[in-house]
Structures are given as structure tokens and as C-alpha cells.
Write the C-alpha cells for this entry.
Amino acid sequence: MEKMMKKVAIATTIASAVGVNAVIDNTAKADSVTPTQAKTQTKTDQVQANVDTAKQDLDLASTNVKEAQSKVDSATQANQSANKDVTEKNQVASDAQVALDQAKTEQTIAENKVKDAQKVIESANSETTKTEIADKTNQLNELKQKQTQITNNLSNVQAIQGQKENQNNKAQSELSQAQSTYNQAEKKVNDLRAKLDANNIDNLTNDKTKAEAKVNKIQSELDMANKANKDKAQAVEAATKKVNDATVAAAQAKANLDKSQSELAKAQAALAALENSKTEVLNIIQVPKGYTLEGLKAASEDNNATFEAISESGIDLNKKFNYSQADVNEKVDYQHLTHEQLVEINKYAISLINQMREHFGLKDLILNEEGLKITKTIADGYQAKRESIMKGNSHDKELLDKRAENIGSSSVYDTVRTNIPAMQVKAAKDVSYREYNSNYISISTMADLKANIYTAILALFFDDSRSNYGHALSFLNKHYKYVAVAPSVIDGRVDNYPGYGNAYINFLDWHFVFPGYTTWNDGKYTYYSGNENDKLNPAQDIDLSKATVDTTAAKAELDKKQEAYNAAKTENDKAVATLNTAEAELAKVSKTSDVKTLQSNLAQAKQELKDINNKLANAEQNGTTLKQELQAANKAKDEALKNLQAKQVDADKANKELLAANAKVNAAQKVVDELNAKVVAVQKELTELNDLVNKGNAAKAELNSLQGKVAAAKENVSEAQKVLDKANEELNLAKVEASQTAQALDKAKTELDQAVAKQQAALDNYNKALNSQKISQEVDRNIQKQTEEKKENKADSGKKSEFTSNKVIKEAKTNVKEANTFKKQHVSVSKASVLPATQLPQTGNKTENQSVWGLVSLAIAGILGLVGYNKQKKNN
């Protein structure tokens, strides 16, 4: 904008310079200046007139704006007042509606009371009510007469009951006394028997027999000693030969025993090495004698203790669980088994089941990859639904979807959430089936996992009496071809131990799932194919051969070595016994018999026999007395027993009669109670009927009052409706008034906007007029200055007359050229020359408008100067 102002100033200066030089160049026509001054004056007057007109227009526009604003203010106030009136009228209408609703409610209540009163009056005055009152009154009188009779009957039977109770108390007392007498007699008999037993006749008789045998033995030894002393040399030689022969035989037997023992140890080591391989360690399930398919089927129909005992003996036969070190070393998380671990446990479990099937001549079950997937999905479903046999849940038919299932369950100690030192926690591999209920079981290795499923299979085969052996028969079902097993684990119980904390127990269920199912009816199975979506591809069958180890040859060799060892041990034991006997005989014959010692022992033994005979004679004499006393005591006991039995008969009879009397009293009491209940019921009904009549009378007396309240309520409704109608009418009028004032306000605002726009236009015109006036004044000052310079130049005009016209023209051209390079110090128009605009709403770039207007004015002035110059040039 500053650059534009400079261009305007330069243009004005050029125009002024041209005009001056034209005057100087035309020395003969100085009067040409006068028209220029006249035109300038006219222009100045026109500019002033424009300013005055613009000022009048601006004042008129401002006045119109004030008037429009005043109208807007008045319209706004009127609209606000109208809206306030609408709000107030709306509240009045709302209150009137509430009053009308309340009046209608009160009218309805009053009308209902009238209807109720009329119903009560009708019911109370009906013939039915009167008839019922009469009937109930008669019925009550009859019942009260019967009440007297049965009450007397009750009193009679109660009196008889009292007599029978006294008789029974007496009989019971006599029975108690007879029982006491019998007990005393029995005690006396027992005491005498104890004394008789303490007399020790039998023991003394035995001692006598032993003492006689001892005397005979010593006498025989003494006789042999006397003879042995004669045949000693010959006996020693024969005994020595026996010892030597026995020693040789014993040495040979010992050598044979050592050899067979070594071979047996090698066979045992070979079998153990084979069984301890990672491939598998299978327990060979032993089937108890009598555990047959026929027995199972019969027990499933008629469960009996005999077969249950046979079946449970299988638990003890197979209580030892074998495991490999490799399984001990493999850690498992039984709640998150890998697919490989699940396949391995399936191979192990199905191989155990197939052992039993092979025993009964059945085909092996097959493990299939798709079947395993189905089984795991079912097990996961139990886990998601938090179902377990341990919680009392049964087989989930929805999850099984036409498949058969066996479930083996156990409680497993959660070692992750709890670690209580006081707990006796054992690894599953170290706990037998019988110990499961008395220990906390933990599972952390593959050996533990296999031990747990091993015990589950034992339970399903041998401890299944409670299920009528249904699980065992499912495993031994000839219709089944496939099976798979998968675990489900849920939170079980929590055992609290003060001072230690909680022990969390998980419930582990093994789900053995068979595609299809069978039913057992009338002694035979019926097979159903089950879920039609179970399409098990034989190509996905899993090879079970790796799950077992062929130990047949090793076991046969072990049995052979065991038999050889047993035979060698028998021979060795026999040889050692023969040698010991020979050595003993040699030692015996080698000794010199001590005849004097034997004679002394014989005399002592005979004295002991004599003492026993004396004791026995005394005991027999005491026993006679005790037997006589015992005989008398037994007689007294028998008499006491007879008396006790008689008193028992009397007591039983008295008790029976008392029970009969009690029954009669109870029956009579029941009749009394029932009659009393009837009296109470009839009395209640009669009271209710009389109350109904009273209520009818009261309702009849109150009916007129209630009807008056209905009429008053209707009047209130009518009045409330009128009030509401009037309020709604006034509200509608107020809304119309508010709408009209809103329209007036919109119109006033529109007119105000138009007035403001016109005011802005007038202001713009006024500012333009002022700027034009300023420019015009600048131009006038320049022209005045030029005029004065021309006058000064006239004084020198005589001196220049001698020049030719060509020279004048040349000088004029020179002056024009110099004028074209004239600097802006002659005329300077800047931003300060533009008057500030009156403050109004901004509608454009005011500075730019002023500058453009100034540029136009300067351009006009410059054109005027050039016109004058051209005219002078043309005249010359």
C-alpha cells in the first residue's frame, strides 16, 4: 500500500510540472492560466457539495439505525413478556389438569364405595344369607349337644387309661425286681464257676501227665546211657562216617544253589532292564479267580456279596504299581497336558484295558486320532461347565451326544496354590489304591500321571459294585471298537488347617469315551451306532505297539531260573539238615554218658510227680464242695429265671393293655378335637354371616351419604374441567401472542440489519468525499504555487523574446524532460492526508478504499495538467 501511495504522489507531481512548463513555454498567452483556476474552483465547490451531501446521507442513515434499534429493543421486550406469559399460562393449565385428574380419581373412589355398599346391602338382605344364618345356628346347637357326649366319653376312657397305667407301672416294677434277683443269681453261679476253674484240677492233671512223661524219659535215657557206655566206640565210628558223607553232599548242594542264584539274578536283571525302558512299564493285571464275564453279567442283574468279594480281591492282587525312571524324570502339568503326553497316557491306559479284554478273548480296542480329539472336546466341556463325579454330577448327555462313557475320579492336592508343610502329601506313584482316601495325592511326573490312571482303571474293573459293574462291562463290551481317554480338572474342596492356611484340592476325572453306546436288557446287549458325525478314519489309528514291551521270553526264562533256584535251595536245605543231624548224633555218641546226673534228675522228677499228686488230691476235695454250691446256685438261678419270665409276661400284658387304653384315649381325643374344630368353624361362619348383616345395615345407613359424595365429586370434576378449558384457552392465546411478537422481533431485526448496511454505505461515501476534498485541496495548493511562479517568470519574458520559436519549443521540451524527472518534494501525498473513518461496523478494507480513491483523484488532476499542456502546444 505504501508503494501504491508513492506512485500516486509521483503521478501528481508529473502532472503539475507539465502544467507549469506549458505556461512558461507560452509567454505570449499568459491568460490561459485563468480558465484553469476557474475549473479548479468549480471542482473544489463540487467536492465540497459532495461532502455535504454524503454527510447528510450519513446522518439520515444513523438516525434510521437508532430508530431500528429502538424497534428491536421494544420487540425483544414484548417477545420476552409474551414468552413469560406462555410459561405462566402453561403452569396454570398443568395445575388445572392435575386438579381434574384428582377430582376424577375421587369420583371413581366415591362411586366404587357406593357399589361396594350396594353389594354388601344386597348380600346382607338376600334370602341365601338368612337361610345360611338359620342353618348354621341349628348346626351349632347340634354340635354343642354332641360335644357334651363325646367329652364324657373321653373322660371315661381317660379314667380307664389311668388304671391301666398304674397296673403297667406295677408290672414294670415287679419285672425290674425279678430282673435284679435273676442278675444276682447269675452272678453267684459265675463266681462259683470262676472258683471251680481256679481250683486248677485240669491243669494239675496235665501237670501230672507231663511229670509222668518226664520220669519215663529220664528213665529211658538212663537205660540208654548205661548201654551206650558199652557200645560207644562202634557208635562214634558210624556217626563220623555219616558226618563226612553229609558234608560232601552239602558242599555240592551249596555250589548248585550259588550257581542257580546267580543265574536267577541275571534273569531278574534282564527283565527289570526291559521293564525299565522308556517305551513303557506295564503292570501285568492279574485277574482274580472267579472274576468272569458270566459272573459280571450275573452280578449286574443280581449284585451279591460273594462276587463283590471276588472282584475287590483284584485290587489287592494288583496294588503294586511299576514305573520307569524315565517316567519319574519327565515332569508334567496334569492340568495342561501336551498332545504328545495325552497320546502317551492313552496308549498306556488302553494297553491296560486290552490286557483284560485279551484275558476274556475279546478284540483289542483301537486308539484313533479323531476319536481322541472328540474325547478331549467332551472332557473340556465338563471342565468348562465345572462338572465332576466328585461333586455329585452324573454323565452329561448333552456333551456325550449319543456316546458311551466311563469316568474314573480322584482328588489331587494342588501344589501350585498351596504349600502347607504340615500336610502329608505323597506322589501318586507311591500310593496304592487302598491308601488314596488317607493321603493327599500330588501329580508332578509322568509316573504319577500313569499311577493315577492305573488306580482309576483298577477301580472301574474291580471296585464297581455300586454301579452294578456297568463300567467293567463297558470296557469288556464286544461291540465297542474304539476308545480314548482325556482328563478334566476343576476346583474341588478347600480344607482349612488353623495355623497353616488352606489346602486346595482339585477334582481330576478321567473320561473314557466310546463312539456309540449299548443297552443291557433281558440278558443281552443291544448296540447303537450313536452320533452320526463320528466318522473315524482307520488311517488315523494310533499304533499301540510302542506302549507295551514284550517281556514274555524274559519272564519265561526268569520262571525257569526261579524253578532251578527253588530246586537247588530245597536240595541244599535238605543236605544241610542231614549234615546237622549227623553232627548232632556224632556229638551225642562222642560224649561220655553221665549216669550219676541222670540218676539225680530221675529222683528229682519223681519228687515233682509226688507233689503234683498231693495237690491234685486236695483240689479234687475242694472241687466237690464247689460243685455242690454251684448246683444249688444254678437251681436258684433257674427259679429266678422262671419268675423273671412270668413277670415279663405280666409286664408285656400290662403294657399291651396300656397301649390299647392310650389308643382309645387318642381316638376319643381326636373325636373331641375334630368336633371342637367343627364347632369353632361353624361359630366362625355364623359370626361372619352376622357381621355381614351388620355391615349391610351400616352400609344402608351410609349409602345416602356416599351417593351425595358421588354427586359432589361429579360437580368437582365438572368445575375442574371448566377451569382446565379456560386455562387451555388462555394458554393458546398467549402462544399466539408469543408467536406474533417473535415475528415482529424478526422483522425489526431484519430492518435493523438493513439500516446498518445503509449506514455503512453512507459512511463509506462520506469517507470517500472527505478524501476527495483533501486531494482537491492539495491540488489547489499546487496550482496556486504554479501560478505564483508564472508571475515571477513574466518579469524575465522580455529578455527571452529575442529567441526564435524553435528555441522556445526546444526549451519547452527540455523543461518537459526535466519535469519527467521531477522529484516528489513538490507534492507529497501520504497516509496522513486521508481522514480517519467514522467508527461503524467494518464491511471492507477501509485503507485500501481510501488509497484507491486518492489514486483516482490524483490521476484526474494529472490528466487535467496534461490536457492543458497539449492545448498550449497545439496553439503554439
Observations:
- The CA atoms of residues 292 and 360 lie 8 Å apart.
- The first strand starts at residue 367 and ends at 368.
- The domain at 280-531 is CATH 3.40.33.10 (Pathogenesis-related Protein p14a).
- Residues 595-794 form the longest helix (200 residues).
